[in-house]
Specification:
It comes from Raphanus sativus. By secondary structure, this protein is of the alpha/beta class. Among the domains are: 108 residues, Serine Threonine Protein Phosphatase 5, Tetratricopeptide repeat (Alpha Horseshoe), CATH 1.25.40.80; 137 residues, DNA Cyclobutane Dipyrimidine Photolyase, subunit A, domain 3 (Orthogonal Bundle), CATH 1.10.579.10. It is built from 21 helices and 6 strands.
């Protein structure tokens, strides 16, 4: 194999080497398969670029497979609908590049090795996620594959590959920032164009390439109806690019100017980029967002620097935490000082305690908190500033830090369209367990964990406006849902009229 590659070698990890000792020129014919997991896009995707490059260098055909689990960390219609509609678009677009896309369903530990065996693949390429469920699934897949297969993992999600940025658990943004910034000249570079595959995929499993997306999406949305889809967030790569830099309401084109001043004001949600759903599902590349943001830095230096701090340093710090701290979602994963302090205060008397049901329904004595909870339930995306207040109040109102953490993660993953993300686990850990933060003045219940309260919010933004903004949002959504339900009932009662 030629030594030059389209992808920086530091972005690729070898998870398994083939035991075949053939010269590369003889390793022809066996296809390259890209098992797409976290980076569900065609454009700006290092894993796909690597898979196609590898195929072209070994004169082999290439395919993309995606495995849809029957259940994945409790995802419901809101998240699965968004994901599958994005994949439907990707399927259409990738076929025009002559790369077949296969949708497998069931346990990836079984479907992926079976697929690889059936098509006689010699190379498997996959993208990277630090989450334990994905890592252990990948380990099992690697174990179950043939000895002749090589497996490459490409970090297509982070601007600086997680393992290149740091080989250890970082203490805070302060300790990882310099390491990331030092590597940006190497990694924050323009993407090469995706080469067309030289060798065609012919004949193999062509029956599996046909996907009835509409029926599949209908089924998944029906089964996950407990948390319905949201209309405002259009799925897919094209929509993600529109949110980033569209001419009508794009973040960089129209909204960036106020990012550094208004991003902590929940009354002005449009000041935020709104990119997290696309970043979470990999429908947009963080590297593309950073490259485009840098182009307008001369005009808005402060806004761009603040955005890049969130997009690169904070987001990639979350991947670092989840990768190097196996207990990333439990009190055990907190720093020693925080664990001790929270444990010392676990039995402090709480002014209020609420059950999961009361919290889920937004039935507390705090109208600001209730509004944030309902924003998440009905809108599917709570404002970033409110997420901190929201999680900290759960610590104040539940029996202890373990319960607070598990409730906040449960609700976050259930309702947020960007849930089940390393930034979600770390957001809850930061708010409740002081991860990546420092110790503060000791107080009841919180111990040394940073405290937030209603009065502080009142000083920062117009609390009443936020509450009425959420109220009207809930009422509009409820009306729409009622009308839709009525329409469905009518079409069942009078099928001909429709
Ligand atoms: C309790 C809690 C729960 C959270 N849950 C999630 C979650 O489930 N999924 C999720 O993606 N983020 C989560 N965050 C982080 C952050 O609040 C969201 O990423 C952000 O609000 C998303 O909106 P945006 O894309 O419009 O943000 P912007 O401010 O426009 O930020 C741009 C991007 O930078 C990254 N970013 C911004 N803030 C943070 C942060 N604090 N930590 C890490 N990355 C950040 C995100 O990728 C975001 O999309 C959580 C934070 C807290 C405190």
């Amino acid at each position: 194999m030629a030594s030059t590659t389209a992808v920086q070698p530091g972005r690729i990890r070898i998870l398994k080497k083939s035991s075949l000792r053939l010269p590369d020129s003889d390793q022809t014919a066996g296809p390259v398969v890209y098992w797409m997991f976290r980076d569900q896009r065609l454009r700006d995707n290092w894993a796909l670029i690597h898979a196609v490059d590898l195929a072209n260098r070994t004169n082999a055909p290439v395919a993309v497979v995606f495995n849809l689990f029957d259940q994945f960390l409790g995802a419901k219609a809101r998240q699965l609908g968004f994901m599958l509609k994005g994949l439907r678009q990707l399927h259409r677009q990738i076929e025009s590049l002559q790369i077949p896309f296969f949708l497998l369903q069931g346990d990836a530990e079984e479907t992926i090795p079976e697929f690889l065996k059936e098509c006689g693949a010699l190379h498997l390429v996959t993208d990277f996620s630090p989450l334990r469920e994905i890592r252990s699934c990948k380990e099992e897949v690697v174990k179950r594959t043939s000895v002749s297969l090589t497996v490459h993992e490409v970090d297509a999600h982070n601007v600086v590959p997680m393992w290149a940025a740091s080989g250890k658990l970082e203490y805070s943004a302060r300790t990882i920032r310099g390491k990331i910034n030092k590597l940006l000249p190497e990694y924050l570079v323009e993407f090469p164009e995706l080469e067309p595959p030289k060798k065609k995929w012919v004949g193999m499993m062509v029956d599996k390439v046909v996907v009835d997306w509409d029926s599949l999406i209908d089924k998944v949305v029906r089964e996950g109806a407990e948390v319905p889809e949201v209309e405002w967030c259009v799925p897919g790569e094209d929509a993600g690019m529109e949110v980033l830099m569209g001419s009508r309401e794009g973040f960089l084109t129209k909204r960036l100017r106020n990012y550094s001043t208004d991003r902590n004001n929940p009354v002005k949600p449009k000041a935020l980029s709104g990119l997290s759903p696309y970043l979470h599902f990999g429908q947009i590349s963080a590297q593309r967002c950073a490259l485009e943001a840098r182009k307008v830095r001369n005009t808005y230096p402060q806004a761009v620097d603040t955005f890049l701090e969130e997009l690169i340093v904070r987001r990639e710090l979350s991947d670092n935490f989840c990768y190097y701290q196996p207990q990333y979602d439990s009190l055990e994963g907190a720093w020693e000082w925080a664990r001790k302090s929270l444990t010392d205060h676990a039995s402090d008397k709480r002014e209020h305690t609420y059950s999961l049901e009361q919290l889920e329904k937004g039935q507390t004595a705090d109208p600001l908190w209730n509004a944030s909870q309902l924003e998440m339930v009905y809108q599917g995306k709570m404002h970033g500033f409110m997420r901190m207040y929201w999680a900290k109040k759960i610590l104040e109102w539940t029996k202890g830090p373990e319960e607070a953490l598990s409730i906040s993660i449960f609700l976050n993953n259930k309702y947020e369209i960007d849930g089940r993300d390393p930034s979600g686990y770390v957001g809850c850990m930061w708010s409740i367990c002081g991860v990546h933060d420092q110790g503060w003045k000791e107080r009841q219940v919180f111990g040394k964990i940073r405290y937030m309260n209603y009065a502080g919010c009142k000083r920062k933004f117009d609390v009443d406006s936020y509450i009425s903004y959420v109220k009207s949002l809930v009422s509009v959504t409820k009306k729409k849902r009622k009308a839709e339900e009525q329409l469905t009932r009518d079409s069942i009662d009078h099928p001909k009229a429709n």
